[in-house]
Amino acid sequence: MKRYGLIGFPLGHSFSASYFADKFAASGLTGECSYENFPIEQVETLRSVLPADIRGFNITIPHKQHILPLLADIDPEARAVGAVNCVKVLPDGGFKGYNTDVYGFELSLRKMLAARGEELTSLRALVLGTGGAAQAVHHVLRKLGIVYIEVSRNAGGPTRLSYDQLTPEIMEQHRLIVNTTPLGMSPHVEAKAALPYDAIGSQHYLYDLIYNPAETAFLHEGRLRGAWVKSGLEMLVLQAERSWEIWNEE
Questions:
Q1: Smaller CB count within 10 Å for the chain: N or C?
Q2: How confident is the model at residue 13 (pLDDT cuts 50, 70, 90)?
Q3: Which residues, other chains included, contact 71 with Cβ-Cβ below 8 Å and sequence gap of 6+?
């Protein structure tokens, strides 16, 4: 049996186990492969919780950055991001970290913008949140030449604004808004970032890394005002498939 899994805490919102179960069933691999959830509150306990024969695992909040000291090797792109969401177990038992969020977000965002014929370099972005997922988004935006500003509860200079500093003028200048926070994730579906939503219009793109619910309160506000909106489901599928490729590369 080839064993894979997901670590994080809590894991009640995770879709990965069911996704891979469906994938294994569709591919005739149900008896050969398994994917399990491993709720781990302290990442330092990882070795004592994971089965000895695990071949690879994904990582979700809050461990995408905390796991870095436990890795024997880090893929250059993951190192540049400073966060890991995919680990391959090496033949000697060591861990190598990757960031497949970068792959998933970049491809999904490109598809969203291409559908409207949007020029990448004509965009400026607001990135809501400053955690591990935000680091992957920052990396992709830099790669695509999209200038961005971080938004968090506390300001930190010209490149990090607080929510109460967002004026209609700033919203008009930044037509791509990416939510990397857990605000609006099930079961707290009513929560949303404190944005001046009336400043959002049909020229905006709202991308939410959350996939459950399919339409968050953040995306709902944008759709009501004519913005193009997209949930994180496609990104999740793309990063999961990239993880599968990594685990099975020779």
A1: C
A2: low
A3: 84, 87, 94, 95, 96, 97
| Residue from 2, 23, 64, 111 carrying the catalytic annotation | 64
What pTM value is reported for the model?
A: 0.91
Direct distance between the N- and C-terminal alpha carbons of the chain, in angstroms, rounded to an integer? 18
Structural Rg of the chain based on CA atoms: 19
Instruction: Tokens for 249, please give them.
Output: 């590369």
Kindly report, residue by residue over 193-233, the tens digit of the pLDDT: 999 999 999 999 999 999 999 999 999 999 999 999 999 99
Burial of 231 per CB tally in 10 Å (0-12, 13-18, 19+)? buried
Question: Known catalytic residue: 64?
Answer: yes
Instruction: Name the 3-class secondary structure at 77.
Output: helix
CA distances from 144 to 174, 200, 232, 246 (A): 15, 23, 19, 24
Q: Position 89: which residue type?
A: V
∠88-134-227 over CA atoms, to 5°?
A: 125
Residue 223 burial (10 A CB sphere; 0-12, 13-18, 19+):
middle
CB 8 within 8 A of CB 14: yes
Distance CA 231, CA 234 (A): 7
